[in-house]
Hints:
single chain; 119 residues
Amino acid sequence: MKAIQRRTSAFDARSVLLFAALSLGGAAALQAQTAPATAPKAQGGPSLGPATSSPKPAAPAGMGPSAAAAFDRADANADGKLSPEEAATLPAIGNRFEQLDTDRDGSLSRAEFDKGAKP
């Protein structure tokens, strides 16, 4: 019997090389997408980082962290008070907006919100 020799075509070799290159490239891309480490802030001197918005005022002492966070999320324009449209994003507050707006100025202050957020 004659031994049958199978000749590997150039197409097969290229396919294997292409698969290997794509696999290695994909692994390198995943490695490159790790989160960058935060650089420490320089002492004394202007910050060269991106401009940030002004910090939000601190929550009143009676307001819990979750209520303060809810107020900050709902306060879309960061003016320190909730309009009826902003309060509507929080159904428990938006449904009682007129009742909670004790000074009838058309917006809820943090104090008014805090009174409405208490159980």
